Amino acid sequence: MVILDALKNILSESSINEPDTIKQPIKEPVAVNNYQPPKLPKKIEKMIASGKSYSSCVKELKNFSQYSDMPSKDLKILVSTVGTKVMAENSIREMEKIHEYYKISCLSDSCPICKKASKMRYRIKDRKVGVNFPPLHDGCRCTFTIVEPKDWNRWISNYEKQHKRKK
After folding, report:
1. pLDDT tens for residues 66-122?
2. CB-hemisphere CA count at 13 Å for 107?
3. Most buried of the four, 39, 67, 131, 140, by CB within 10 Å?
4. Of 119, 110, 133, which Cα lies nearest the Cα of 31?
């Protein structure tokens, strides 16, 4: 979408922190795409994160001058795409403390980019939004699932030891 590409240059910084993977050298994440999701005003991202309806986020977004003339259809795609990013990132932050890998989970009618991405597994610490973590394109509805460890019994034993309550 031309409109979304143009918006990338004028929108303010996102309130959602991208994962910090620069602290130590790591292998580059497997790239299935090179998409940069749009960034919306902080107020809108906070509304999305707090569970406000997408229609109320679109209505509020129209109050910002750079969006006031945009068609509602394009605004809905913007909000939906950012919603995918916000929800996926907020969800995986808790998972990365106890799991190592994830897979992209998409619907049966998903695009070829998402279908290709769903066939691979990725390290959680190496995720990059738009590259190997949702959203992978405008209007992306994908999410992720955690990949079960190969040795479940060992994993659960270690988990219980780490989280055992002291009496």
Report:
1. 998 999 999 999 999 999 999 999 999 988 888 899 999 988 888 888 898 999 999
2. 7
3. 140
4. 133
CA distance 143 to 59: 25
Tell me the per-residue pLDDT of 33-70, one tens digit each, with 9 for 90 and over: 778 888 889 999 999 999 999 999 999 999 999 998 99
Span 113-156, pLDDT tens digits: 889 899 999 999 999 999 999 999 998 989 999 998 888 888 88
Phi, psi of 143 (to 5 degrees): -135, -155
Q: What is the CA radius of gyration of the chain?
A: 18
Helix ranges (H only) for the chain are 2-8, 42-49, 54-61, 72-95, 112-117, 152-162
- Residue 119 burial by CB count (10 A; 0-12/13-18/19+): exposed, middle or buried? exposed
Residue 121: beta bridge partners?
A: 103
Name the strands in the sheet holding 101-105, side by side, starting at the edge strand that comes first in the sequence: 121-123, 101-105, 143-146
Quote the CA–CA distance of 146 and 96 in Å, as a whole number. 10
